[in-house]
Amino acid sequence: MNGEESAVSGLLAARASASDKRKAFRAGLSSDRIVRLPGAFNPLTAKLIQEIGFEGVYVSGAVVAADLALPDIGLTTLTEVATRAQQIARVTDLPTLVDADTGFGEPMSAARTVTILEDAGLAGLHLEDQVNPKRCGHLDGKAVVPVDEAVRRLRAAVAARRDPDFVICARTDAAGIEGIDVAIDRAKAYADAGADLVFTEALHTAADFERFRAAVDTPLLANMTEFGKSDLIDAGTLESIGYDAVIYPVTTLRLAMFAAEEGLREIAAEGTQSGLLDRMQPRSRLYELLQYARYNDFDSGIFDFTLSRSQ
Fold first, then answer.
1. What residues contact 189, with CB distance under 8 A and at least 6 apart?
2. What is the pLDDT of residue 106?
3. Catalytic residue at 201?
4. Is 288 a catalytic residue?
5. How far apart are CA 303 and CA 261, in angstroms?
6. Which one of 19, 44, 76, 304 is at 20 to 30 Å from 179 when CA atoms are compared?
7. HSE (CB half, 13 Å, CA atoms) of 144?
8. Does the structure show a pLDDT above 80 at 183?
9. Other CB atoms within 10 Å distance of the CB of residue 113
């Protein structure tokens, strides 16, 4: 690598290739340590997730929908999800897992979804067994398709995969509708259909997670979303139960939106943001996260200023 290539490496895009990230995700799922994947609502958040030391990044369908001011009821398109997922995956060396809802159709659409998300540089996706259009997994009133229909959806997705390291995760919403035993049976059928990872939505307690782990041999993913049906179980406990991955899908968006609302209300009331400065990320920290200074190594005309301590 020459000096110019070295200077730009990791700035405009991740250093790691999509293939490397997929291999890392596979290795993580087969290790004895849980893979933690906080949700990123934009690419900058993904850079922060990597800097702090997590093992992966998650792109939530609910977050993509909310970012478009839409509810999580299957209104987003494959193009919208793939575009945001690609933007996030390209800036981080971590593997990125994306929520692909029901595959955006049946089963040929699910197959096409795999090819599009592979091309977008994702490390994997999950497909659920809800009726299309779906709804948020922690709401009541969900419905699941017959198991043979869900299996066809998964088999189509697996058949379309070109990179064998691309992870296909099967999500089942059956536990909250038909009970855990039915969800376990579905998980086994989905593993037989080629799923690499199983995600059981809306389990309630640690005992539920333990029961599922004891019954299913396939690697398992837990969803630790706030204000839902599941107890918020810490990663160490999930790891001791035997779970292989955990997602925190909406956490960063909720934190950001809470802070944004509080700040906007104060500006509306006070007419200034001066009282909010100690609750803001300063310019210097933003520039550090963006690696502004390293851009100077590539082109001194880009970064030709200094920041004061107060910035």
1. 147, 150, 151
2. 87
3. yes
4. no
5. 33
6. 76
7. 23
8. yes
9. 26
Which of 22, 36, 84, 126 is flagged as catalytic? 126
Q: Which residue has the tokens 């091309």?
A: 119
Residue of 26, 36, 58, 155 with catalytic role: 58
Structure tokens, 310: 């107060």
Task: Please indicate whether residue 178 is annotated as part of the active site.
Answer: no
Q: Which residues pair with 127 in a beta bridge?
A: 170
**Which one is catalytic: 55, 99, 196, 239?**
99
Report residue 158 as tokens: 């697996």
- For residue 196, the 8-state DSSP code is S
The fraction of the chain above a pLDDT of 70, given in percent, is 89
Residue carrying the six token digits 């500006």:
267
Q: Report pLDDT digits (tens) over 216-243.
A: 999 999 999 999 889 999 999 999 999 9
**Using 50, 70 and 90 to split pLDDT, how confident is the model at 196?**
very high
Q: Which of 118, 190, 223, 295 is catalytic?
A: 223
Which is it for strands 245-248 and 124-128: parallel, antiparallel or unpaired? Answer: unpaired
292 included as an active-site residue: no
Tokens of residue 211, six digits: 């029961």
The reply to whether 223 belongs to the active site is yes
